[in-house]
Design a protein that fits this description.
Blueprint: H1 9-16, H2 39-42, H3 47-59, H4 65-71, H5 75-81, H6 84-88, H7 90-99, H8 109-118, H9 120-134
Helix pairs in contact: 3-9, 4-5, 8-9
Length: about 140
C-alpha cells in the first residue's frame, strides 16, 4: 500500500530519516562480533535490502543481480542493475560489506558462490561443530 504522505522523493527521504536510531538491529557478522553499522548507514538503505544482506550473510541465501554485482566488486554492473534508491545509497551498501561483513563472503563471484553453497555463517558454524564433534 502506498503512503499518501509521500508525493515526492524529498517526502520519502524526510519520512525515511525521521529517526536517528535504526528501526531494528541487523546482524552482519559472526556471533560475538559487536560491531554494528551506525544509524547514518542503516537508515539510508531500504529495509528489504538490509534484510537480504543479513539473510545472505547469516544463512547464505542467494541474492539478486544488483547485490551479487556489489559483492563481486563489479561497479559498472551494480550501478546498471540498481534502482534509483540503491544507486543513491550504493556507497552505504558497500560500507556494510567492507566494514561489517566477513571478508570471505564478498570480493568476487567465487566467494559469493562459496558463501551460498556453505550456507553462510550458520552453515559454516554447523560445519565446525560437526568437525569438532568427530574429534
Amino acid at each position: 500500500m502506498l503512503n499518501p504522505e509521500i508525493k515526492t522523493p524529498a517526502d520519502f527521504r524526510r519520512l525515511h530519516n525521521q529517526t536517528s536510531a535504526p528501526k531494528r538491529r541487523y546482524n552482519f557478522g559472526f556471533p560475538g562480533d559487536n560491531s554494528e553499522p551506525d544509524a547514518s548507514i542503516i537508515n539510508n538503505i531500504e529495509p528489504r535490502i538490509l534484510e537480504s544482506i543479513e539473510a545472505y550473510i547469516q544463512q547464505g541465501r542467494p541474492l539478486g543481480d544488483f547485490l551479487q554485482a556489489v559483492i563481486a566488486n563489479n561497479l559498472m554492473e551494480a550501478l546498471g542493475r540498481a534502482d534509483l534508491n540503491n544507486r543513491r545509497h550504493c556507497f552505504e551498501i558497500c560500507q556494510i560489506f567492507y566494514n561489517y561483513a566477513p571478508s570471505s563472503c564478498h570480493g568476487d563471484k567465487e566467494r559469493y558462490r562459496n558463501w551460498v553453497t556453505r550456507g553462510g555463517i550458520e552453515g559454516i558454524s554447523a560445519e565446525i561443530s560437526a568437525k569438532t564433534a568427530k574429534v
